[in-house]
Amino acid sequence: MPNPITVTELYKMKRGREKIVALTAYDYPFAKILDESGVHIVLVGDSLGMVVQGGTSTLPVTMDEMIYHTRITARAVQNALVIGDMPFLSYQTSAEDAIYNAGRFLKEGGAAAVKIEGGAGVSHLIKAITQASIPVQAHIGLTPQSIHQMGGFKVQRDEARLLADAREVEEAGAFSVVLEGIPAPIAKKITESIAIPTIGIGAGPDCDGQILVLHDLLGLHDRHLPRFVKQYAKLGEQARAAVKAYAAEVCAGKFPDEKHCYS
Ligand code: KIV
Fold first, then answer.
1. Does residue 26 surpass a pLDDT of 90?
2. Do 115 and 133 share a domain, yes or no?
């Protein structure tokens, strides 16, 4: 595996039927764990707004917040491809805004690529950003920045539209596409009909790769989890138990003990 992973390596992985492992991260310590565990793509997602900032949607996340989190994430990554997620209104307004803000992710954040939400409707922006030599990952299906337009976080089932979106973003120059909240048979068809790697989240097992939100996978919060999330740990419970044990020992005068004092 080349170091760090490039977008061309991801094409090779698709052609060689090697699965692409992607996860989100938002800070140095977790990004280091992901990078040392063989994750191929580290996405600094705007899911930041929900799992780190405690909001109910991704809409309020700002460019400056994304740049800060991308910088402290990228600093830890030696091997994976770091992708910065362009937040709401950082690209929809014009091609100029899209290029400028995408460039900030590379210049200030240390990312190697950006992700934008939308299909055919943003293909002109994908083209503009890639023409500025910035690799773009597209994101179609359930796109959380359009939650008000979609009427909530809903599975997207319009097969013809999804296939057309996938072809348009490929044609516009995207190096990969996230398929979110799409029935598995449609995601399989899309994956087979385009040359760029598909990364699924709630899109079944036949995508070229998979991504999850790290805090969902680790059980770091007690928010509602969508059906597609598999929790591999319950770190929130472990953290709570550790903090309670510490508090109890401080209150009882048991910590610090002799072992943790300077003589
Ligand atoms: O913001 C995010 O974390 C994402 C992934 C879940 C694909 O867009």
1. yes
2. yes
**Cα separation of 97 and 3, whole Å?**
31
Q: Are 37 and 117 contained in the same domain? A: yes
Q: What is the value of pTM for the model shown?
A: 0.97
Asked if residue 138 and residue 66 are part of one domain, the reply reads yes
> Whose alpha carbon is nearest atom 8 of ligand 1?
45
Tell whether 2 is covered by a domain. no
Structure tokens at 16: 């060689």
Residue with CA closest to ligand 1 atom 2: 45
Range of the domain at 263: 234-263
Active-site residue list: 180
* Rounded Cα gap, residues 80 and 83, in angstroms: 9
**Residue 85 Cα, ligand 1 centroid: separation in angstroms?**
8
CA angle, residues 108, 110, 114, in degrees to nearest 5: 95
Q: Is the CB of 47 under 6 A from ligand 1?
A: yes
User: Distances from the Cα of 191 to the Cαs of 24, 158, 179, 194, 203, in angstroms?
Assistant: 22, 16, 9, 6, 11
Whose Cα sits closest to atom 5 in ligand 1? 45
Per-residue pLDDT band for 2 (boundaries 50, 70, 90) equals: low
> Which pLDDT score, from 0 to 100, does residue 233 have?
97
178 lines ligand 1 (CB under 6 A): yes
pLDDT, average across residues 206-229: 95
pLDDT at 223 over 90: no
- Which ligand 1 atom is at minimum distance from the Cα of 43? 3
Is 210 a pocket residue for ligand 1 (Cβ < 6 Å)? no
